[in-house]
Amino acid sequence: MNDAAGSFAGGGRRRKRRRPPPKLSRADFERAALRHLERYPSSAAGLRAVLGRRAERSRAHHGEPPEEAQAIIEGVVGRMAELGFVDDRRYGRALARRLRARGNSLRRIAARLREKGISGPLREELLGEAGEPGAELDAARTYARRRGLGAYRRSRGDPAPSEDDESGATEAIRLRARRELAALARAGFAFEVARQALEAE
To answer: How many domains does the chain have?
Structure first.
């Protein structure tokens, strides 16, 4: 079988050869950073991780020293911050607001901010903004509404107790209430907030 025939897969499609990754360079990493930021908002830590994966692929193929890659990455991340393309405060605030609007608890928001690499002091500042009075209960109600819990249950009818099985129906109602409270607790809401969220507004 000649080379031309060997370049085709079993289904007759030509197999694409993977291009080798480019060598480490400041210009290449700046272009990669700009492409990424055009598509995905990112924290400094998030961009650093993306560029780090690119550097690993380059180092695995070309064998450049890790110190060179680290210096380039830090320089590019710093440059993106200078240009205003990376701003942890702006990114973190937008993320916290988006999560709040979807019914996330402060605990969940804190975990996501930490996961995205937002520093401790800034994270506390953003959590303070998201934790204004009543915001946690509003978020819990949004969560309950989205999940169809409590007063927002799709089928609101409780099982009607019969003379023969009144205790069984009552126990079923209690069990469902415990499950709904547990769902809100797993989502990071305190018991009292969860209890209020399940009640009609």
So the answer is: 3
